[in-house]
Fold this protein.
Amino acid sequence: MGVRRSAIEETHRVFGPEAILLEAAQASALKQNVSLREAVSRTEGGDPVAIARALSHLSGLPMMESVDVGLVDIALIRPLPMNIARDRGILPLYVAEGQLVVGLADLGAMAVLDDVRVLLGYPVRPVIVPSNVLSDATSKAYDKAASSAEDVLDDVNRETEATEGGEGDLNLNEDLLDGSDEAPIIRFVNAVLTQAIKERASDIHMEPFEKDFIVRFRIDGELYERVKPPFKLKNSIVSRIKIMAGLNIAEKRLPQDGRIRRRMAGREVDLRVSTLPVRHGERVVMRLLEKGEVFSLDRIGMESDMVALLRKLIRKPYGILLVCGPTGSGKSTTLYSAIAEINEPNVNILTIEDPVEYEMKGIGQVQVNPKIDLTFASALRSFLRQDPDVILVGEIRDRETAANAVQASLTGHLVFSTIHTNDSAGAFARLTEMGIEPFLVADALIGVLAQRLVRRLCPDCREEYAPTDDDLIDLGVTRKEVPRAFRPVGCAKCNGLGYKGRMGIYEFLMRSDEVKKLVLRNADSGAIREKAIEAGMLTLRDDGIKKAIRGLTSIDEILLATRDDLAQT
């Protein structure tokens, strides 16, 4: 870097270990022919803040320890592709006193400042920013600056003549916000994916009708129409998605399934793609699964006392724990959270799933494949020869799977699984209906967790009110029991929906001696449920009402989610 010896000595005097760290990173950068920023990340014990301070002292440039993304001028970063900003370690921040303040992660980025000056038309004033701070700010700024699908659709309409081309191979490591692809169809598809991720959509639906092609997002369980591309572009858009998912673009008569892996603002996202031929073209549904999802029983909306009971149960050496509820009620998330709690080096955990939705480090995960007779039942048989401590079975669908799960639990294994029943008590009856002897069910099944998902009220705009008489009658409670409730309003932070995110409501039935006696007598689920409630079990409705009183969700959401529960009271 051409730094005078006296400057280095001064840096040693002022910064001490930080300067030594910087020199180590400089030597590594020269040896490996990489940028100093990259060398810093590879240097053992490299503190980005310490490195930035030393760089600031050596270069004479001011240092900025933090970046307020809210102050970043979005108009300044749009002309600069994200891949260049990331590769070079630069980020235009804002204009002050006629100069463009640009954050630098290392001094090597000085070489491109002239290009930035010409591109953006301002004299440049560089500042040193710690590499981790700059990387995070870059992701957030480009996420904020990303064009919506509607904005890009205007370009598509203006460039219709170009929409038939531009469909080539893709770089799977490419970030959706890089903006390096110029074909309008490519930009539109990327914008749809980006907008869906920003709006926390769980699914993207692309549906052709007689005269329309509609894109809808499922957000917190509800579908919302987002954009209507010209009908004539539907084939090009579907073909683009097929290429991204590795599907056969020539096959339009049969359903196809694939997967897309992409990055958006530094986050890895998996998209499960399903195409279905319908009358007016092909329908596409994409399920969004964000990689790196953190699973924890403390984050799923379960009451603390129930979490404590569940934690005791998942530490037992053997038995079956079932989670029940309809499709889309969050059963998989609960099971992943339970598995994450006990995922330790001394525990051997195996799962058989259909499909494997999230990859978990340290766990053997198997994907169901009926074409080669790899089913839940057959995998369970093989698992017992793999010396497992804990087994997760995606779903108990038939007698063979149920019998194998019971056998595994009775031979010293802890088994987690799901089953489709309306409430927790129904799981006992469902297993006996599958042909499992009542005495085996009574011995093996140690607990059942029933659950539903409800939308969370936006904490920034929810409104408190006194429940109406109709609300109280529908819930089956008195005004003394529910003196207040909250309802959605809608604001900018929740996109005007009034809700932001979802949470679970739960009903946890622990096997007791009384419940065991009823199962042995082959009692119906109603009798088991009554006995559990007498012993203190909170129903789905009870748990929901507690959350509604605290303003976490609304009465409407509880009524919608617990219709079956209400019918039994």
Q: What stands out?
A: The chain has a mean pLDDT of 84. Residues 228 and 515 are 55 Å apart (CA to CA). The radius of gyration is 28 Å.
